[in-house]
Amino acid sequence: MTGPSAHNVADLLARTASQHGDRPALVTETTTITWAELDVSVSQVASSLQHRGVRDGERVVIVLPTSVDFVTAYLGTLRAGGVAIPLNTGYTAGELARLIGRTEAGVVIAGDPSTTTVRQAVAGIADALADPPDELADRRLPTVVVTGPALPDEVAYADVLAGDGVPTPHGRGGEDIAVMLFTSGSSADPRAAMLSHRALVSNLDQLMSIDPRPVTETDVLLGVLPLFHVYGLNTVLGQALAAGAAVVISERFDSHTLEQVVRHGVTVAPVAPPMLVAWSDSDHLADALAGVRYLVSGAAPLPLSVIEVITARAGVPIHQGYGLTEAAPVVTTTFASPELKPGSVGRPLPGTDVMLVDESGELVDEGDPGEVVVRGPNLFSGYWPGDTEGPDPDGWWRTGDVAYADHDGDLYLVDRIKDLVIVNGFNVYPREVEEVLLDHPDVAQAAVVSIPDHRTGEAVKAVVVAEEGRALTVDEVAAHCRERLARFKRPAVIEVVEALPRTPSGKIAKARLRDAAAREADKKRAGLA
User: What are phi and psi of 311, to 5 degrees?
Assistant: First the structure.
């Protein structure tokens, strides 16, 4: 698509509707919505939200599954001049109450399976405001909008969709905040990264400037990733908006997803690693992916063994990238590299600068691992509230990730700095140990975390899941590691579990594993275990 960059993310929709109005935009199991139809619906939502006070940066929480309603609520909020705050539909009422309260949202849009939970959360906020402390004296209760039947004090989303379709111009865009996304990282106290219209649109412009473009107007994207995560929100939906590609909207990944790929003629399938792991066991993979140009894996590391199985069975290339919520999200991609290299996440996007530095901020030697430091127009504006911890005065931001680059400049992720295990002063990168564990024929999944050790300071703990139908013992895993790892890298503790905890984006929730390991260590020190 040609033309100037959009000022507001919702401008992308208007531009695409004017150029490809009769082409499919959103495809579901029951309907197809064209770009022109979507543009009309978004304007109706925007005008309705404005009538309810959403403008000039008013914050709108969206607790909806991946759906057409999510798309219209998100883009309608931005077209109204508001700030969209998508939240995980799996949050509890207590979690939602804290986040809704923290963001001071004026509107909450909810739908099944989260409607009841949102109602409980807002009731909790109401209780807190009944006798508020001084700092909450001016806080008001948010308006609740629901996609199903509304209670007397709520608004039905059907009525929001029936707006007059003439939103009042507001001029918000550019550096104004468009989206606040709570990072899934390892902190027990999640923070909302503030992404401006500039950051979101710049990342799409960067992707669209790659030759050849990863996504074009003739593509059909698989839209199964959660839209409350930046990967689904901007890399999938955003690219579709920018390119004019259709998106097959699917609420969840399940055993029928491959059937949807075939039925709707999907040509580009953005997925998370657990999805590819599930597909690698399919006997019909080659037939199902026959029309797919390529797979895109992101949000978490993809084991080399899975890449080998998928490519051998289906012959479809798997592109990978590296990104963060704070980068809107793509930093590097194999689309920017002349060739696919196993394990590489590619090169920086056009217009994005990447450095690898040591603890003192000095550039590391070629081939050595260092912290990834990023500069580019796609970076966030800081964390809510207070614009804190954003890029430095020169535009650089330290990601906390460790990587090394080969002689061609292709990047290879090693680990998160906070995941690093230091044993007797030696650095142990969990991903290296995890790759060894995954080489065991009976290990399906693996995660490595740090545990305290009175002799070595820290030690390695491995948590593994056995292949289905396979028996796996701790002694077998330990013997496997002894053959392949230096002594200081070997797991001091090995645990075989039925499943690993994961975030909605498919990442292994290592914070939960670390917390469990810390509690177990506390018990041992107290003589309770």
Answer: -65, -35
The answer to whether 318 touches 307, Cβ cutoff 8 Å, is yes
Query: Residue holding tokens 């077998």?
Result: 476
pLDDT band at 188 (very low <50, low <70, confident <90, very high): very low
Phi, psi of 345 (to 5 degrees): -105, 15
d(CA 266, CA 247): 9
Q: Are 240 and 204 in contact (CB under 8 A)?
A: no
Q: At what angle do helices 68-80 and 35-51 cross, to 10 degrees?
A: 60
Distance, in Å, from the CA atom of 278 to the CA atom of 273, rounded to the nearest integer, reads 9
Phi-psi region of 39 (alpha: psi -120 to 50; beta: other; left: phi over 0): alpha
Given pLDDT bands bounded at 50, 70 and 90, which one contains residue 528? low
If you ran DSSP here, which 8-state letter would residue 227 be given?
T
DSSP 234: I
- DSSP, collapsed to helix, strand or coil, labels residue 422 as strand
How is the chain split into domains, by residue range?
28-195, 420-525
Q: What is the pLDDT of residues 207-228, one digit of tens each?
A: 999 999 999 999 999 999 999 9
Residue type, 236: V
Q: Nearest-CA neighbor of 202 among 7, 334, 381?
A: 7
Distance CA(362)–CA(360), nearest Å, equals: 6
CATH code that applies to domain 28-195: 3.40.50.980
How many Cβ atoms are within 10 Å of 372's Cβ, its own excluded? 27
Exposure on the CB side of residue 310, measured as CA atoms within 13 A = 26
The CATH number of domain 420-525 is 3.30.300.30: yes
Q: Could you tell me the pTM of the whole model? A: 0.84
β-pair type (107-110, 59-63): parallel
Concatenated DSSP letters of 151-178? PTTSEEHHHHTTS-S-PPP----TTSEE
CA atoms of 111 and 64, how far apart (whole Å): 5
Place of tokens 């992404």: 195
Taking the mean position of all CA atoms in its chain, how far away is CA 110? 20
Number of separate helices (H) and strands (E) present in the chain: 16, 26
DSSP 8-state assignment for residue 5: P
